Amino acid sequence: MGIVVDTRERVIEGDIGRSLAEMDFGCPPAVIRALYGSLEREALGYLGAGEVLRLQDAVGAWLADAYGWRVPREAIRPVADLVAGFRAILTHFIPEGEPVIVPTPGYMPFISMPPTINRPVIEVPMIAAGGGWRYDFEAIRAAFAQGARLLVLCNPHNPIGKVATEAELAEIERIVDEFGGIVFADEIHAPIVLDETARHLVYAARSERAAAHTITATSATKAFNIPGVKCGQLVFTNPEHLERWRRIGRWHEHQTSVLGVVATEAAYLHGRPWLAETVGSLRETVADAVSVLRESAGRTGIRVIAPQATYLLWIDLRHTGLLRGDVAAARAIRDAAQLVVTDGAECGAAGRGFVRFNAALPRPYAIEAMHRLVLAADAGRRRA
Length: 384
What we know:
By secondary structure, the chain is an alpha/beta fold. It has helices at 29-40, 49-67, 82-93, 108-112, 137-145, 166-179, 208-212, 239-248, 250-254, 258-270, 272-300, 329-337, 363-383, and strands at 16-17, 76-79, 100-104, 121-125, 127-129, 132-134, 150-154, 182-186, 214-218, 232-236, 303-304, 312-316, 339-340, 342-343, 354-358.
């Protein structure tokens, strides 16, 4: 696959990248039209029962069509976003002081938020092996044995881009069932699968046993690039969990935006062509970006495992000359290469010496960014 930027010509100036997981591609035209329509109707009130029903119907139809997962309408509940939903579940389903298990590197709020409400985090590092990633099942089992009750299952995984296999999900299911645990399944990146040999499997849809111990988080925000509209969903597949949520969830649901419902409905009903084109573009861009780093790995020491999903590159800088003492990796990369990245240490102890690069950029920018990183690593090695 050809590289689209010649490093001998500095055609792009200034910083490249963003630390948040959002795309530089706008969003589906259908979403824009729907939002304009709401503004023209001055439909800017609080979330009402009618909007909730519309959201449930749109999300339910998407889940059934995309994954064959059919859930009752009332099991789909609105929340402002993933983090708000996660915090609500920890607050109302997990007692204070009880640990939360997070495979790491993990999405930053999964690491930083639970301790702020007195839910300690047990980090379980993922294992890089055979050009991919795998879960440390024995460490997960040991974490449950230490008193943890909830496991965060981020699939597809942010930041490493892994898509879990059926065998892996089945083993997680066995362990969770053994300890009477709960799974918080973050499946927000599910529509963005780049590896055409991989398939997203909804954890809770696989068996009655998995459904009984799972609360699933989903949203149109990542796939359709609408995170600012503040509209996520929790799907409850255990009737007792749903009943508890009905008692305590009112004000959490109230934070959801009416415009978010409008955008979500439009994305799911009319955004598929845009999504297909966007995923195709991301597939090519990510492959080219990975190629740049791999072709230079022998001399730079930069390592990367191609993500199966998402648009995030998890880049290992531990064997380069780019890291400087106590300076955060993200700061070092911005200074050396004018790249804006997420510091891997924010994703847990397993992320120290790594950075997360958001490749959801026009291809010339993403490839230029990787060339800048290579050039900076070359310069760092010469200085060393």
